[in-house]
Design brief:
By secondary structure, the chain is α/β, with parallel strands linked by helices. It has seven helices and ten strands. The chain folds into two domains: 99 residues, no CATH class; 124 residues, Isopropylmalate Dehydrogenase. Helix 4 crosses helix 5. The termini are far apart.
Length: 267
């Protein structure tokens, strides 16, 4: 009987908590190591996330930090490999529903889809991709990045995202492949450059203006763009704008791999 009362009490507590916060809490793991600004910065970010949304329960993973006893912790030794293993175990066991990671060793085929605020017009723009490697073949990776970028845009509520390809090596071939896919029925909506001649191949002024919803590029270039767009106002010390490096889709993956950290502040 006492066990039944306990179960009923816990269920009622969950219902009350959900009514207060607008839904059930979601536990999100956060690696407590790897930031060049120190683990305290990560813990403060976890507090901000918790206080900004009553539905988010940050779970710090790593060596426990004095002064942050109010946060949930999965304690590990001071070793990034141990932290990564603990994070993967927590995901597998359902202790956390998702994870934010730093210096995570992505498997080949996994890449992250970032999102920035473009300075010219203040428009959000997805950068596909920003870390990881969707394919070791350059053009193939850019085609995959396009599909992942479109999927991410639709997942956040952009029903028909416009796509442009940054004018880097392989852009014209990637555009040709994507155009063939469109002709065969794949729903790709190409955007247009702000230049008079238009076209889906983008230059620097196009990404500053946010000419498209999804900017496709190779990962190394995408990573540089993420750094520039997100931290140019702080001299590179931390990322003050945008949404970070984003989710990490992969072909045939059982779950998304942990992604790089989102910035501490949002516009």
């Amino acid at each position: 009987m006492s066990d039944m009362k306990k179960i009923i009490g816990e269920a009622l507590a969950d219902i009350v908590q959900g009514a207060r916060t607008g839904g059930p809490k979601v536990s999100v793991g956060l690696m407590a190591m790897g930031s060049e600004l120190g683990p305290e910065e990560l813990a403060m970010g976890a507090r901000l996330a918790r206080d900004a949304s009553g539905r988010v329960e940050p779970v710090m993973i790593g060596p426990r930090l004095p002064g942050f006893e109010d946060l949930s912790w999965i304690e590990t030794p001071a070793c990034e490999e141990d932290v990564a293993k603990a994070m993967e175990q927590a995901l597998s066991e359902g202790r956390i529903a998702g994870a934010v990671a730093l210096h995570y060793p992505f498997p080949l085929g996994v890449t992250t889809i970032g999102r920035v605020v473009t300075p010219g017009r203040g428009r959000p723009m997805i950068v596909a991709s920003s870390t990881g490697t969707s394919s070791t073949v350059r053009v193939e990776s850019m085609v995959r990045n396009t599909l992942y970028g479109i999927a991410t845009a639709k997942a956040i509520g952009v029903p028909n995202p416009t796509v442009g390809i940054l004018n880097v090596d392989g852009a014209q071939i990637a555009y040709k492949v994507l155009n063939q896919m469109k002709e065969r029925g794949y729903p790709i909506v190409f955007g247009a450059s702000v230049r008079k001649d238009g076209g889906a191949i983008l230059r620097g002024n196009d990404i500053l203006a946010g000419a498209v919803d999804v900017c496709v590029t190779d990962t190394l270039t995408g990573n540089v763009l993420m750094k520039l767009f997100s931290s140019f106002t702080t001299g590179g010390s931390y990322e003050s704008l945008g949404w970070g490096y984003g989710p990490s889709p992969a072909r045939g993956g059982r779950r998304s791999s942990p992604s790089s950290p989102a910035p501490r502040e949002h516009p």
